UniProtKB/TrEMBL annotation, chain A:
PANTHER family: IMPORT ATP-BINDING PROTEIN (PTHR24220), LIPOPROTEIN-RELEASING SYSTEM ATP-BINDING PROTEIN LOLD (PTHR24220:SF689)
Keywords assigned by UniProt, alphabetized: ATP-binding, Nucleotide-binding, Transport
Pfam families given in the database record: ABC_tran
Record-level GO cellular component terms: plasma membrane
Entries under InterPro entries matching the protein: AAA+_ATPase, ABC_transporter-like_ATP-bd, ABC_transporter-like_CS, ABC_transpr_LolD-like, MacB-like_ATP-bd, P-loop_NTPase
Name assigned to this protein: ABC transporter ATP-binding protein
SMART domains attached to this UniProt entry: AAA (SM00382)
Stored SUPFAM superfamilies: P-loop containing nucleoside triphosphate hydrolases
Protein family: Belongs to the ABC transporter superfamily.
Organism per entry: Dactylosporangium siamense
Upper lineage: Bacteria, Bacillati, Actinomycetota, Actinomycetes, Micromonosporales
Signal peptide region: none
Automatic annotation (TrEMBL), chain B:
Residue segments, region Disordered: 179-205
Membrane topology, as annotated: Multi-pass membrane protein
Biased composition (Low complexity): 179-199
Localization of this protein: Cell membrane
Keywords: Cell membrane, Membrane, Transmembrane, Transmembrane helix
InterPro entries listed in its UniProt record: ABC3_permease_C, Membrane_comp_ABC_pdt
TM stretches of this protein: 20-39, 303-325, 346-372, 392-415
GO cellular component, one term: plasma membrane
PANTHER family (UniProt xref): INNER MEMBRANE PROTEIN, MEMBRANE COMPONENT OF PREDICTED ABC SUPERFAMILY METABOLITE UPTAKE TRANSPORTER
Main location class: membrane
Keyword Phosphoprotein: no
Protein name: ABC3 transporter permease C-terminal domain-containing protein
Length: 237, 424
């Protein structure tokens, strides 16, 4: 995929929620964001600023109320749940703070699950899962269940699951939030390198300036809109 | 296809949880299947071995043209008993219809006591009546704990007499009890006599006879009005009942190949007492018992329906509760690309796969049990069922019912799963 290919394009997007009191809370108000293949974007902001909401919208879980939202040329606001799910299955990989591995499956099976939903056959999926686990250095833990893995290992499995289907966009929500500093370094290095290898785009939400600093671009969410920060010193993508 | 594969995968990976409501489903379907198989096996037993249910194929009834006196009836019964011992394939019995009055309390004026039509039978009578052996009410009466005479009333009679619960009463057996019985003595006896007792009011023809503390069982619809007693007491009652000559009904059974001369045996016994038997009527055993089996089957189906309904509610409740627990897992599936409808379908399919497993298991257990011991489901104690064709339609019906339950009970969890990922 050429580096300047637009993966996500958001213009003037807004999102409101109705509070139990009946009032409307406008979390996002005129968000503009364009992410191209090979980009790595760190989104920062205070708690409650709407970072996770933006990520959920980019992950096609919830639609924006207003504005333009395209992904890989598809008008997301006009697409139904099935189309969005298909895009999510094939073109978006997720890495969560709490890993969200299925507890009753082994590492290998967790990664395979991503393949299955992406439309790969069982045999093809198993092979891809093995390769993905090899890339994150967990070949020997393939048969372990999440409870038998350390936090760092679980996040590596999560990264393998996100990348096994070779997505165009990887969304990471505080990927190092549950890890100690040393493990966090290893994991973020692995994530950035793997995404870069794939030529995919990465959108990452973090509170950690050090993690944000390793991304190619930093944006700050405040007052419902995104503002560009200064370019990071060390780029990851 | 992909959703089916995912559903299968989820079913496999969540087998511990699924086995819990699978077990509930298996229990309720098991009850349904057992009830249906029992009805089928009992029907097969009766149809195939109807002739053998009581050892004989042919049943006849007849009566004597002239009423018999007490002595004549005793002699007749004794003669029939003797013939029965000489010919093992011949089983005769007699019964006498009686008129009585029922005193429900000592203070009741005997003349005002409600009238009652009873039937006194010899012990052999009940062995020849297929309906009795399978009835719980009869078993209660015949239990070792209950000695002496007892009365079973049909529903309408019990209602008329307002005896819908078990009670102890005084039975006045006489044409004119008010004139023949000493009310004061009866009341005193009724208050003090612990065991069932009987006495004659004056003896001889037309004398009043009071049977004290006779238990009454109401709301009995089959073979009502039978005056059921233990052997000796029954003979006694039979004798006492014949204070005035009454018509006697005779019934007998015989093996089909040897039935030709059984009427001759009855005639021989009747000749001893100077009685003339009327022409015999053939009674079909199977025809008698099949309606009872049908009624039992209907009752069984009602019971099974209640069990299945309760099972369904439990399964739906447990399955929905599991969906709540699994909300984070469904959120992960959603992140991996499962659509909301796919997640609902996965939850539904899991239920269906569990139901399918239960159906196969229940049918397998039923088939295995039936092939190992065909008599296991037979509820006719007099017959041993040594072989039974596989009731394919019944198994198919059970499998279809189980799948339907799986589908219906899966709707609520599926909807819950669908909603749980609405805004994930």
């Amino acid at each position: 995929m050429p580096a300047d290919d637009v993966v996500v394009e958001v213009e003037g997007a807004s999102k409101s929620f109705r509070l139990p009191s009946g009032e409307h809370l406008r979390l996002l108000n005129g968000v503009d964001l364009t992410v191209t293949a090979g980009d790595s974007v760190a989104i920062q902001g205070r708690s409650g600023s709407g970072k996770s909401t933006l990520l959920r919208a980019l992950g096609l879980f919830i639609p924006f109320d207003e504005g333009r939202h395209h992904m890989l040329g598809v008008d997301i606001r006009a697409a139904g749940d099935r189309r969005c799910s298909k895009l999510r299955a094939r073109s978006i990989g997720f890495v969560f703070q709490d890993f969200r591995l299925l507890p009753n499956l082994t590492a290998q099976q967790n990664v395979e699950y991503g393949c299955l939903l992406a439309g790969l056959g069982p045999r093809e999926g198993a092979r891809a899962a093995r390769e993905a686990l090899e890339r994150v250095g967990l070949t020997d833990r393939a048969r372990s269940r999440p409870a038998q893995l350390s936090g760092g290992e679980q996040q590596r499995v999560s990264i393998a699951r996100a990348l096994v289907k070779r997505p165009d966009l990887v969304l990471a929500d505080e990927p190092t939030g549950s890890l100690d500093g040393e493990t966090a370094d290893v994991v973020i290095e692995l994530l950035l390198a793997s995404v870069a290898d794939l030529g995919a785009a990465l959108v990452l939400v973090t509170h950690d300036d050090a993690v944000a600093g390793r991304c190619g671009r930093r944006v700050r969410l405040g007052g419902g809109t995104l503002h560009d920060d200064e370019p990071a010193a060390a780029g990851g993508g | 296809m992909r959703v089916v594969r995912l559903g299968l995968r989820e079913f496999r990976h969540n087998w511990r949880r699924n086995s819990i409501f699978g077990l509930i489903l298996l229990l309720s379907i098991g009850v349904q299947l057992f009830t249906a198989l029992s009805a089928e096996a009992s029907k097969t037993a009766v149809e195939r071995y109807g002739a053998a249910v009581f050892g004989y194929a042919e049943t006849y009834t007849s009566g004597l043209e002239e009423p018999l006196s007490v002595e004549q009836l005793r002699t007749f019964n004794a003669r029939l008993d003797e013939i029965g011992r000489s010919y093992p394939w011949f089983r005769p019995a007699t019964s006498v219809s009686l008129s009585a009055r029922l005193r429900t309390s000592p203070s009741t004026n005997p003349a005002d006591a409600p009238t009652l039509e009873l039937r006194a039978v010899t012990p052999a009578w009940r062995l020849m009546t297929p309906a009795i052996a399978d009835d719980d009410a009869w078993r209660t009466v015949m239990s070792d704990q209950r000695l002496g005479p007892a009365i079973l009333l049909e529903s309408a009679t019990a209602e008329r007499l307002r005896l819908t619960t078990p009670a102890a009463v005084t039975v006045l057996l006489a044409a004119e009890p008010a004139a023949r019985t000493d009310p004061g003595r009866t009341a005193r006896s009724a208050a003090t006599a612990a065991p069932p007792a009987s006495r004659t009011g004056g003896g001889g023809t037309g004398a009043g006879i009071a049977l004290l503390n006779v238990p009454v069982f109401g709301t009995y619809s089959e073979l009502n009005k039978a005056f059921t007693t233990g052997g000796l007491v029954n003979q006694n009652v039979l004798g006492l009942a014949q204070a005035t000559p009454r018509p006697v009904q005779i019934a007998w059974r015989c093996e089909p190949t040897r039935c030709s001369d059984t009427y001759g045996l009855i005639r021989t016994a009747a000749q001893v007492v100077g009685g003339r038997p009327q022409d015999p009527q053939r009674v079909d055993n199977v025809d008698q018992i099949l309606p009872i089996l049908t009624a039992q089957r209907r009752d069984g189906q009602r019971f099974a329906a209640i069990v299945v309904l309760l099972g369904m509610l439990a399964v739906a409740f447990v399955a929905t509760a599991f969906i709540e627990v699994r909300a984070p897992q469904f959120a992960t599936l959603r992140a991996l690309g499962a659509s909301r409808s796919a997640i609902g379908a996965i939850a539904l399919l899991e239920n269906l796969f569990t139901a399918a497993t239960v159906a196969v298991l229940a049918a397998g257990l039923g088939l295995a049990a039936g092939s190992l011991n065909p008599d296991l489901f037979n509820q006719i104690p007099q017959v041993r069922l040594d072989r039974m064709e596989v009731p394919v339609a019944l198994y198919a019906q059970t499998v279809a019912l189980t799948l339907l339950i799986g589908l219906l009970t899966g709707l609520a969890p599926a909807l819950r799963a669908y909603r749980s990922v609405r805004t994930t």
